[in-house]
Design brief:
The chain is globular, with a radius of gyration of 26 Å. It has an 8-stranded antiparallel beta sheet with strand order 3-2-4-1-10-9-11-14, with helices on one face. A 6-stranded antiparallel beta sheet has the order 5-6-7-8-12-13. Strands 16-15-17-18-19 form a 5-stranded parallel beta sheet, sandwiched between helices. α7 packs antiparallel against α15 and α14 packs antiparallel against α20. The chain is an alpha/beta fold. α12 links the parallel β17 and β18. The termini are close together. The longest helix is centred in the C-terminal third of the chain and has 22 residues. It binds 5-amino-5-deoxy-1-O-phosphono-D-mannitol. 5-amino-5-deoxy-1-O-phosphono-D-mannitol binds next to α10. The site of 5-amino-5-deoxy-1-O-phosphono-D-mannitol has 16 residues, from α10.
Length: about 625
């Protein structure tokens, strides 16, 4: 969703901000803007609905000098995605300019109060209320900007990451955060600010993550000041080294990030597995689980919370943990969790899964689970993001930056980590012996090579995709471990091609969706040689008996299904618990090629954001 970038130094802010905004595009947005402050203290704001390219077009020929600036990509929440509602928002008379990620929940009350004090509002945004509030406090109290920001934020309920600049103060920027991330990049005589590290990569690898309820005053040529909103200086700046490279943020010769990320899976799974399985493949070591073995051993129940693709991974995690460890598991949509009267106790372990680590609903579920006394474990991709910082412990999936909005390599990474977690926990609980761990661990170690083999299907899937480019509906069916795979396959297709697709447990089909089947409604059926193979085979027969067309994902040599299905995608055989990792890859490819055939923007599908930072 929204993205922030800021710069203060000796370089030209405009170019740095525009590059940063382009790097933030992957998050999803519908307008963009910048505020630039020249060395003489004049402040100019350029903003436009549409893309960063539209903003560039708007700024063409205008004065874009200045070595201080803030920029923003906005994903509309309060008000239309138009020029006026775009950020930066400015205060009365254009004295202050502010960019904001998050939502100010009490903005109506604040707006009402400010209106009574003579303020008027050009936009429909909550952000304009905040910048006017800072202006009001500054004017009333005759105080410097940092003090006014601190005062204003005390009045505010909600979530925010903000960056503010002030006319006639070309050497200063103030930033703050609560429940929305903000990272500060410390370079040689220059400082960068961003909502995630992507705009900073390539400028500096030294970063400071701002904590919740902290603000920083960045002054040209002066040491950085980080303090709590209560005014206490942070004892140590805790400068960290970024492990991200520019190459990871580029397409590397692929036409889209999504295709690059699908093809990266052999190497991302290698990174994900690194150091977690012993050389003899008889033991799995996830340090977060081992270090918290007592909490896990005490758990009467595990509750998994997540959204979207991560929720699908969670469903697979449920089956893995129940089967291998004998612990009851519940999987909740994080977005529903807090509204469902959750009954969580100190005897529960809550596992939160999130690629971005910034999903607002998942963060809210974590907060509630913590308040209720549970031990909360995170499974995340983005290092240093909010979820790892708000959980007691956890595991990174280490699949590198995922830029395409549709999750691909993060899903296979999440499932891989869930397999590792289940194996590790099973060892600790004594529910699996080393000889039982070994075949799964060995197959996991071979997984990068297995996925390489699956990726050879790409040309066949591309050809197959042409048959279905104009289908209006799809059914995805699977059972057991592959019911979530079906859900994930359907989600991929609908997200990027805008074709309606439903994932269903294959046996549930006869309880309703079977009515939909005809020769215009293709069914994608995941049918590896697992314990439910013969049952899925009858589901294939049921679809065929009603004139439906079947695309089956099967293991090589499955003549029974081959003789029935219209099209087969053959994947290598792996232990049953690993089939979702292997079977999801052809489904990613199918969705990808259908979307490309339809001319869709697969990396940035309409209406979607990469990290969903609002409720
Ligand atoms: O970053 P998260 O894993 O918490 O995101 C959750 C969902 O928003 C995300 O998985 C979404 O469903 C993706 N677009 C799926 O491709």
């Amino acid at each position: 969703m929204c993205g922030i970038v800021g710069y203060i130094g000796s370089g030209r802010a405009y170019g740095i901000l525009m590059d940063g905004l382009r790097r933030l595009e992957y998050r999803g947005y519908d307008s963009a803007g910048v505020a630039l402050e020249r060395d003489d203290g004049t402040l100019s704001v350029y903003k436009s609905s549409g893309k960063v390219a539209d903003l560039e077009h708007l700024a063409e020929g205008k004065d874009t000098t200045g070595s201080l600036g803030i920029g923003h990509t906005r994903w509309a929440t309060h008000g239309q995605p138009n020029d006026v509602n775009a950020h930066p928002q400015v205060s009365r008379g254009g004295r202050l300019a502010l960019v904001h990620n998050g939502t100010i929940e009490n903005y109506r009350v604040l707006k009402e109060t400010l209106s009574q004090c003579g303020y008027s509002f050009a936009s429909e945004t909550d952000t304009e209320v905040l910048v006017q509030l800072i202006d009001y406090i500054q004017e009333t109290n005759h105080c410097p900007l940092p003090e006014a920001v601190r005062e204003a934020l005390r009045e505010v309920d909600g979530a925010y990451a903000i960056a503010v600049v002030e006319r006639d103060q070309p050497d200063q920027m103030v930033v703050a955060r609560k429940s929305s991330p903000l990272v500060i990049g410390v370079g040689e005589g220059e400082t960068f600010v961003a909502s995630d590290a992507t705009p900073i990569v390539g400028h500096t690898d030294q970063v400071i993550y701002l904590h919740d309820n902290e603000m920083a005053v960045i002054r040209r040529g002066k040491p950085l000041e980080v303090q709590s909103l209560a005014g206490e200086a942070r004892p140590s700046l805790d400068v960290q080294t970024l492990r991200l490279s520019v190459a990871q943020l580029e397409k590397g010769g692929y036409p889209t990030f999504m295709l690059k990320e699908i093809f990266e899976q052999p190497s991302t799974l290698t990174d994900c597995l690194r150091g977690r399985i012993t050389a003899d493949c008889r033991r799995v070591v996830l340090s977060g689980v081992v270090e918290n073995r007592e909490k896990f051993l005490r758990a009467h129940r595990i509750v998994i919370v997540a959204c979207g693709t991560s929720w699908h991974a969670g469903l697979i995690g449920k089956r893995l943990i129940q089967e291998m460890c004998g612990i009851p598991v519940e999987v909740e949509y994080a977005s529903e969790f807090r509204y469902g009267c959750p009954r969580i106790s100190e005897d529960d372990v809550v596992v939160a899964i999130s690629q971005s680590g910034e999903t607002a609903d998942t963060l809210a579920a974590i907060q509630l689970a913590r308040e209720m006394g549970a031990f909360v474990y995170g499974i995340c991709n983005v290092v240093g993001s909010s979820i790892p910082r708000n959980t007691h412990s956890g595991t990174y999936i280490h699949v590198g930056p995922e830029i395409g909005v549709a999750s691909t390599k993060a899903f296979t990474g999440q499932v891989t980590v869930l397999v590792l977690l289940a194996l590790c926990l099973a060892q600790i609980k004594g529910t699996l012996r080393p000889y039982e761990v070994e075949p799964v661990a060995k197959a996991l170690q071979r997984m990068p090579a297995t996925i390489k083999e699956v990726l050879r299907l790409a040309p066949a899937v591309e050809q197959l995709s042409r048959t279905f480019t104009y289908a209006h509906n799809f059914l995805y069916l699977g059972r057991g471990y592959n019911y979530p795979t079906a859900l994930e396959g359907a989600l991929k297709l609908k997200e990027i091609s805008y074709i309606h697709a439903e994932g269903y447990p294959a046996a549930e089909m006869k309880h309703g969706p079977i009515a939909l089947i005809d020769d215009e409604m293709p069914s994608v059926i995941i049918a590896p040689n697992d314990s439910l193979h013969d049952k899925v085979l009858s589901n294939v027969q049921q679809v065929k008996a009603r004139g439906g067309r079947v695309v089956a994902v099967i293991n090589s040599g499955d003549e029974a299904i081959k003789s029935l299905a219209d099209y087969c995608l053959e994947i290598p055989e792996v232990p049953e618990c690993l089939t979702p990792i292997v079977a999801s890859v052809p489904l990613q490819l199918l969705a990808y090629y259908i979307a490309v055939n339809k001319g869709r923007n697969v990396d940035k599908p309409r209406n979607l954001a990469k990290s969903v930072t609002v409720e």
